[in-house]
Design goal:
Largest sheet: 3 strands, antiparallel
Mean pLDDT: 93
Organism: Archangium minus
Number of strands: 3
InterPro entries: Metal_resp_DNA-bind_regulator, Tscrpt_reg_PadR_acidobac-type, Tscrpt_reg_PadR_N, WH-like_DNA-bd_sf, WH_DNA-bd_sf
Order of helices and strands: HEHHEEH
Distance between the termini: 23 Å
CATH architecture: Orthogonal Bundle
CATH class: Mainly Alpha
Protein name: PadR family transcriptional regulator
């Protein structure tokens, strides 16, 4: 059970995407790789949920995109945070910290 990959909790994908983009513009596959790498290979973001999430975040005004060339010379969309996206990430991060703290108290985890 400990070796099984972790599933993303409902509502965390948007925050993880925004955090990945807070370090600079990335294309979709690079966002997924960033989450996977920074989670210590524990979290995997599948294409089937990644691209709808990127489009949803762009529609909400939290991301902007431009077409460019990937490191493999493929035409891809690069996403970056808008000022509104930075503000939303900040608020979501504060909420997430409160949530983790509350659950940790219930579980008796220091």
């Amino acid at each position: 059970m400990a070796d099984e990959p972790l599933e993303l909790l409902q509502g965390t994908l948007d925050m993880l995407i925004l955090k990945s983009l807070s370090w600079g513009p990335l294309h979709g596959a690079a966002v997924a790789e960033s989450v996977h790498t920074r989670s210590g290979q524990e979290l995997t973001v599948e294409e089937g949920v990644l691209y709808p999430a990127l489009h949803r975040l762009e529609k909400r005004g939290w991301l902007e995109s431009v077409w460019g060339l990937s490191e493999k010379n493929r035409r891809v969309k690069f996403y970056r945070l808008t000022p509104e996206g930075h503000e939303h990430l900040k608020a979501e991060t504060q909420t997430w910290r409160r949530y983790v703290s509350a659950v940790s108290r219930v579980l008796g985890v220091p």
